[in-house]
Amino acid sequence: MYRIENHPILPEFHRGKRVAFLFDGKEYEGFEGEPIAIALRDNGVMVHHYTAKRAEPRGIFCAIGRCNDCVMIVDGAPNIRTCVTPLQAGMKVETQYGTSNEGVTGRQ
Ligand code: FES
């Protein structure tokens, strides 16, 4: 995927080291400390959860921790806002169906 390397306005930014994490049982890579949602986006993952009532897909919307569209199950904990949660090596990230890790409304 495409990442901005040089921004015309922002100063040089420093990335953490490359780390592996699991998304729905498959191994992906991202940079330590970047938001989980960004690491997923860089790997082509756009859907983070499915709504409880209509099983509609949701992904990054506000990207500042306000809308909850990016919530996922992270290391077994549901409703984690991945746009503001830093990636760490070995994290287990899963698509969330409904409002918890127990409800599977909409799971196909
Ligand atoms: S995208 Fe809105 S809370 Fe993460």
Describe the structure.
It is a single chain. By secondary structure, the chain is mainly β. The chain has one domain: Ubiquitin-like (UB roll). About 5% of the residues lie in helices and about 30% in strands. It has one helix and eight strands; from the N terminus they run E-E-H-E-E-E-E-E-E. The chain has one helix at about 35-40; strands spanning about 20-25, 25-30, 50, 55-60, 70-75, 75-80, 90-95, 95. The strands form two sheets. It has a five-stranded mixed beta sheet with strand order 2-1-7-5-6, with helices on one face. Strands 4-3-8 form a three-stranded mixed beta sheet, with no helix packed on it. Strand 3 (about 50) and strand 4 (about 55-60) form a beta hairpin. The two termini are about 25 Å apart. About 20% of the residues are buried. The mean pLDDT is about 90. The site of FE2/S2 (inorganic) cluster (FES) has 12 residues, from loops. Pfam families: Fer2_4. GO terms for molecular function: iron-sulfur cluster binding; oxidoreductase activity. Keywords: Oxidoreductase. InterPro entries: 2Fe-2S-bd_N (IPR042204), 2Fe-2S_ferredoxin-like_sf (IPR036010). This is SoxA: sarcosine oxidase, alpha subunit family.
